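Incident log, structure service

09:12 report received: a user says their structure output differs between two submissions of the same chain.
09:20 pulled the input from the user's history:
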Amino acid sequence: MSDTKYILAIDQGTTSSRAIVFDHAGRIVSTGQKEHEQIFPRAGWVEHNPIEVWDNVREVVAQALSKASINHNDLAACGITNQRETTVVWNKETGQPVYNAIVWQDTRTAKIVEELGGAEGQDKYKARVGLPLATYFCGPKVKWILDNVEGARADAEAGKLLMGTMDTWVLWNMTGGKDGGVHVTDVTNASRTMLMDLNTLSWDAEIAADMTIPMSMLPEIRSSAEVYGVGRGQGLLPDVPIAGILGDQQAATFGQACFEAGMAKNTYGTGNFMIMNTGEEIVPSKNGLLTTVCYKIGDKKAVYALEGSIAVTGSLVQWLRDNLQMISSAPEIEDLAKTVEDNGGAYFVPAFSGLFAPYWRSDARGALVGLTRYVNRGHIARAVLESVAYQTREVLDAMEADSGVKLTELKVDGGMTGNDTLMDFQADQLGVPVVRPVVAETTALGAAYAAGIAVGYWDGEQDVIDNWAEDKRWEPSGEANERERLYRNWKKAVTRTFDWVDADVEK
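09:34 re-ran on a clean worker, output below:
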């Protein structure tokens, strides 16, 4: 296929939607981006307006095409990547959501999760789906909507309602919406619902029944790289093949060319997400990680992964900016942190949505500990950055224990990799080099590659490997005893967040 054409990737993220045009070398040609509202109806509840998100997707696609001075005729294909686990339920006859999308960080389903586990506990379905019962995942969110939105359950049982993660919502609208929209998700997103059997890559009817979710609501599960449909309706990318879908972290793994078992990447975004490719083998975790689908290209066998999901990293910087107003823009945190030499004894455990990997403690809440009169704004800023590195080390320790593979370097991407102070500290804490690629937008890039491979724009994984290039490397330089002292104190701080939520706190 002529390399004069381009690939468009839609990245529907937690805080914004982006559209990025890529050329055949995997380089960015143009970008459109727009934030959407973060809705917090109650403590622990996080929502997005699906209509606002869809409107923003259309707008950012137009921005990206306009900036590149191209139109839909110049596109070989479009790929979609998305914030995973965020769940939307909508009426297929009207195209209207029955409720706001419930975001992956939301903790309202804690009681549903506890009831589902019963005497068997949070590992009830883990052997089948690779996931512990937790508020993080989609199934309990759907059940909450059906149980709490008037008329929703009756409409669902009548076959009028559909559910999906944000890739499914965007694809359905792009391909016609209520006028014949394609209701599909890919294996990576399906593996985050708690409803898909990892072995069969199909929906588990028994688990859906336990969660009282009609099977008619569920999208068809397809591979990560194939043509699902073409753009039609509402003027968005008419006749352009929509040919790739990957959940955001799997897309970043793909964009980082982590195609061999044992290769790993870490994305620094709203949260942090480390994924290690385990090949065609499903590796159960004994150390608090998730077993998930990494990707599936067309008719090839699925590739699996171990993942450590951390709920709050970049969003902690946003919280410092928006809620405490200690900084006016996110990059300022590095300057503030550099005004001090260390954390002054302060540790910040950002368990705003409980603790994810490797603890899975929904009863935890955030804590700033070790405070003395000596601690100032700079120390707190440094404690915020250090919390990202400590949490990442906890996940890496678990990953090495589960896989038996000792990591020799960590590929990194995402917005926070522009923070040299954090990346230096991260390399010190891990004791291995930290490597950033030239194209740090690996999430969108991975979705672009999947779509391009599906239509023959790229030949396959080797083209992705050939396009990958190193931009910057941070080597560990810290003193080992100091590294371990800091980490020991961090682990102590984490225990202080346990058991905070109880019946009184929840009232």
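09:41 both user submissions now match this output. Likely a transient worker issue. Closing.
09:42 reviewer note: The chain has a mean pLDDT of 92. The longest helix spans residues 377-403.
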